[in-house]
Amino acid sequence: MLSYYKRNEIALTPILFLIPGVLFFAVYVIIPIFQSLSISFYQWDGLGEAKYVGLRNYSELATDRAFEISLWNNIKWLALYLLAIPAGLFIALFLNQNVWGIRLYKSMFFFPFVLSQVVVGLVFSWFYLPREGLLNGFLGLFGAGPINVLGDPTLATYGIIAAGLWPQTAYCMILYLTGLNAVDPEQVEAARLDGAKGPKMLWYVILPQLKPATFIAFVVTIIGALRSFDLISIMTNGGPFGRTRVLSFYMFEKALSEYGFRMGYGSAIAVVLFLIMLCFIAYFLWQMYQDEKAARR
Amino acid sequence: MFPTPIEKRSAAAQTTYKALLPVALVMWLLPLIAVMLFSIRPITDFTQGNYWGWPSSFDLIANYNRVFFESDMPQYLFNSVLITVPTVIGAVAISCMTGFALGVYRFRGNLLIFFMFIAGNFVPFQILMVPVRDLTLGLGLYDTKAGLVLFHIAFQTGFCTLFMRNFIRALPYELIEAARVEGVAEWRIFWFVVLPLMRPAIAALAVLIFTFIWNDYFWAIVLTQGPDAQPVTAGITQFNSQFVAQYQLMSAGSIVAALPPVIMFFAMQRHFIAGLTLGAVK
After folding, report:
1. Chain segment B190-244, per-residue pLDDT in tens
2. Over its length of 297 residues, how does chain A's per-residue pLDDT go in tens digits?
3. ipTM of the predicted structure?
4. Is residue B281 included in any domain, yes or no?
């Protein structure tokens, strides 16, 4: 046994090292994806007998108004969340200087990212409060308001997205600060001698060098937008009138809340969300595969 | 350096910049500052509508005392620690091994397994929710810290493997080859050659995972129910329903809940940022 291992050491060692990780990951992540897929074809309350219903959960989705609203909100989240990338770049450019105390400023600007989304949600829901909130305190100074951001069916989603943009922008900022640190000074100097400056310099010289940072910022922002759940749950709990739901939240509501345990229907919603995510995952993996091929040794 | 260093600009520009910095910071952190100010006010300020004027008294200690001594907050904080620390240890240990296997050896399926870890790390939680909840119920671990820890370790292994593998890839491969020529056993290469070099990666990953897990909310409400097992992120909603509309206590409570990862961040800043920005520079 031991001599068999000795003879095939190079081949066997990686397998042995991979076993715990792969096993864990398969049981808790990979297999559940397929289980969810299969549950989405059943009607099941989580306890009793599951009943096969074919594609009926999916055809119900097509006529479900709440699902439609959630899907639209997901699109809003995706589109507006991407603002974190230019906003993060802007702050990074603002802070990329060498003055006294700048390191502390950088950490303080970054620090919303460290807060849990639950706390961010609470902080912003108090910020938006019609009477006690600071936002309306300010608007009052100018004679405007008060507006009840989270109580307004059209405004509420935007209010939550704004809260989400706060930590997300901080994350993009730190990515760009790191990227700016590594920008090749010789290229910058050469471009300066050629008369490039300001936006032109940024677009033609700096941004191409920041590409890896932009790619990561894009990945984490897309994932963050589609994962949005905590903020909605804390700030509005899907309301008013279900107008701030997104797919991830609606799925949870259908499968696990007081509205009943519709595991099959919930899983169908999750599958839709998964398929949306899959488009992005495929793109990310393809990009990484290109990098891998380039870096092959 | 881009933009042009401010020291090369006019004196007026420099002064403006230095004045702008604190203003921008205060605006950026405004919602948070508001909550901090709430947490030192007495309840009477809220009942009398004095939200933003000078506080009628400073009740910092009284408010935070009530958080610690009149609620389940300490229990929730303790639960968070008992969930977070084992997860960090487990996920880092497992991913040191997977990262080593995928980063050092060439074999068929290497890239496939690696990409499986990455892809799994990106999936929406909801597609895992029903089966994972079922599995946890089946193991008898529903509403226990262990149930949460097992899931978190498994899920974080995806991100950690990505991190560790790329880190090991960047190490000088000659070291491993030299050890092999000397006839060192493979597991000894892992333990005595690679692992010591991975210390910065382990530190970075540990602080990152600590923050991620401490801040988790979704799995906490899916896999646990009461003060026996729930971490502080889920506990805070319970706490808030205990002190409805007492903003001074609710703010103090959320500051307490947010503090551990904040302390972790400021204490280990360099590692934290190195971890987050891995790959942002080629």
Report:
1. 999 999 999 999 999 999 999 999 999 999 999 998 889 999 999 999 898 888 8
2. 778 888 888 889 999 999 999 999 999 999 999 999 999 999 988 788 888 998 999 999 999 999 999 999 999 999 999 999 999 999 999 999 998 899 999 999 998 999 999 999 999 999 998 888 888 888 888 887 788 999 999 999 999 999 999 999 999 999 999 999 989 889 988 998 988 888 888 999 999 999 999 999 999 999 999 999 999 999 999 889 999 999 999 999 999 876 668 999 999 999 999 999 999 999 999 998 998 888 765
3. 0.92
4. no
d(CA A54, CA B18): 65
A29 touching B (Cβ < 8 Å): yes
Q: What is the CATH number of the domain that holds B156?
A: 1.10.3720.10
Closest CA to A178 of B141, B268, B107, B279: B279
Using a CB-CB cut-off of 8 Å, the residues of chain B touching A118 are 215, 217, 233, 236-237, 254, 257
Q: Mark whether B117 and B257 lie in a shared domain.
A: yes
Say which of B120, B133, B169 has its CB closest to residue A29: B120
Number of compact structural domains in chain B: 2
Structure tokens that stand for B177 in this block: 């080859």
All structural domains of chain A, each given as residue ranges with its CATH number in brackets, are 30-63+262-297 (no CATH), 68-255 (1.10.3720.10)
B142 and B176: one domain?
yes
Do B62 and B77 lie in one domain? The reply is no
Look at residue B46 in the predicted model and tell me its pLDDT.
83
| CB contact (8 A) between residue B154 and residue A99 | no
pLDDT at B259: 93
Q: Give how far A25 is from chain B: nearest CA, Å.
A: 5
Which residues have C-beta within 8 Å of that of residue B223, sequence separation ≥ 6? Answer: B132, B133, B136, B142, B143, B147, B148, B151
Verify that B96 and B139 share a domain, yes or no.
yes
Q: How close does chain B come to A154, measured CA to CA in Å?
A: 22
Alpha carbon of residue A11 to chain centroid: 38
Instruction: Give the helix/strand (H/E) hosting A51.
Output: strand A51-52
Count the neighbouring beta carbons within 10 Å of the beta carbon of residue A34.
11
Q: What does the angle CA A93 – CA A99 – CA A105 come to, to the nearest 5 degrees? A: 65
Q: Give the residue from B68, B93, B115 where a domain finishes.
A: B68
Both B77 and B179 in a single domain?
yes
Q: Which of B24, B47, B68 is the last residue of a domain?
A: B68
- Residues B78 and B36 reside in one and the same domain: no
**Can you give the residue range of the structural domain that contains B25?**
6-68
Residue B123 lies in a domain: yes
